[in-house]
Amino acid sequence: MAFCISIDRLDANIEEVTVGEWLVSEGDPISVGQPVVEIITDKITFEYESEAEGVLRKVVAPAKSVVPVHYTIGVIAAPDEELPDYEASNRLLLERVRAGGDVHEAARRLMEGMPTLPRPASKVRATPAARRRARELGVDLGRVAEGLDGPVQVEDVERFAGEG
Hints:
By secondary structure, the protein is an alpha+beta fold. The chain is about 30% helix and about 25% strand.
């Protein structure tokens, strides 16, 4: 099943991200947890880790592109799978953002009127470093996230595992 790579809301103040270097090329196989692209914000630079397995079928936003959060920057799918209409959702998101208003609200409204693209059921807001550390320690991010207001941080994972 096709998966659209988009950078979700990282922080209430972050409305756009810069696509850094792509760490894989179109046509490369991708596994879950594999670093795929560098993402740059005014607060942090990190490697986005894939949430899906397949092939990087399309790089939508090349390196150095500045895009709003929730914008589809790439698509992972099976080699022969039909790609979702990411261009239409990106275009609508950009139109709503340019018309003024909050990018997060624009994305929420856009998603209300459109069929949602599949996302992993166990989607937990967490930094890439926290996801990596949770895998290393065998910790369930869903349990770590219980009661937290923001994304799970490395310190939260280590505290949960009794290492911090």
